[in-house]
Sequence to fold (445 residues):
Amino acid sequence: MESARRSLRALLLFPTPRSETAADRRRPETTVRCCLSPALFVLAICTLAPSIFAEEPAALAADVQQLKTELEALRAEYAKRLTELDARLAALGQPMPEVAAPSSTTPTPAVAEASFVPTPAPAGASKVFNPDIAAIGDFIGVAGKTPGSGERSLDMHESELSFQAVVDPYARADFFLTFGPDEVGVEEGFITFPTLPGGLLLKVGKMRDAFGKVDGQHNHVLPFIDRPLVNRNLIGGEDALADAGISVARLIPNPWVFLEATAQVYRGDSAIFKAPTRGDLAYVGHLRAYQDLTESTNIDLGGSVAYGHNGVTADSATRLLGFDATFRYRPLRRSIYTHLLGRTELTWSRRQNLTQTANAFGGYGYLEYQFGRRWFAGARYDFSDRAENSSLTDKGGSLILTYWPSEFSQIRTQYRHTRFGEGRTANELLFQFLFAIGAHGAHAF
Fold:
């Protein structure tokens, strides 16, 4: 009987008290784990019951009373330790841990459960394989009379759809599709390799040329509604020299200015060049020099050259030379409220015809001033000979007013006066609405 009582006491009592260590203070749940297990108590009673109840009733009653006394002592000790633990956790600012009820079934470890929780995808993972897509609308209206053909009275001049994305760590791709009243086509579609050996930047595909400034710009980037006379008469107008080809550019290190050289080879099938055979390619070169004069002003100078067969005869060719200069002033403290831009382009054309060679010259000057956060005023003067008949010279002038409600829209009006080489004149009022949706990459500065 005494041995059974000792066994039951060993099962029910707490472990022998010991001095508290720093590890115990960091793990206050240690005390909770020493609580009495009801399942262990039931098991001990069932195991030792036969030997206990085989004794005499008086001895049995005494033993039961002693067990009750010891259980009450254990309950008091348990309550005391819980009170101490609660006070310690309150001092640490932590909530009281919940003691899970004992179970005969072994619980699944928390680590095993966490391993089955799906990891949320990164925020940009949904568009990893989707390019940046944008749509730009260009609506133009014209009032007034002009001799010969001109813009329509109301016209959705162009709708541009762009797809731009990084192909891999070594290349990116750009596609610009145009939808006009008379055609649907690829304005540009090329791949760019920016990290080739030797510091070269390579473009392959269909692209706009690098001749001058205006020639390589999309319609929605121009600061005026139409293109200058020199671009229409000598360089091919809106499509200009754009063609399928290869472009290579490289920065030329030097201690004075930012210097960039670009060389392009085209198939030779554009508004100016017409290659009679496969080997009659067209070539374009551009050299650009840029320099900051002060923190608010900079100057941009460029020289261009282009050569290709014009299709008049098997050997006839057209040569173009160009010069462009741009001056910008934008004070840093008021950069969103005011700026001044001055630009000029000059072009020389030498075109071989059936019987003679026509030498033509043209250019324009443009001045723009921003007088409010959303308001821009500009003035442009044009003059240009005809490419096929240099004795005829067209001249004109324009006044432009632009309002920018936001970076996604523009409203522009332009008064245009033109005096053609035959002596005819035209006075027209143009207006334009530009609007864009989607992510459209920045164009060249």
In short: Confidence is low (pLDDT under 50) at residues 10-43, 99-117. The chain is about 20% helix and 45% strand. Residues 93 and 349 are 84 Å apart (CA to CA).
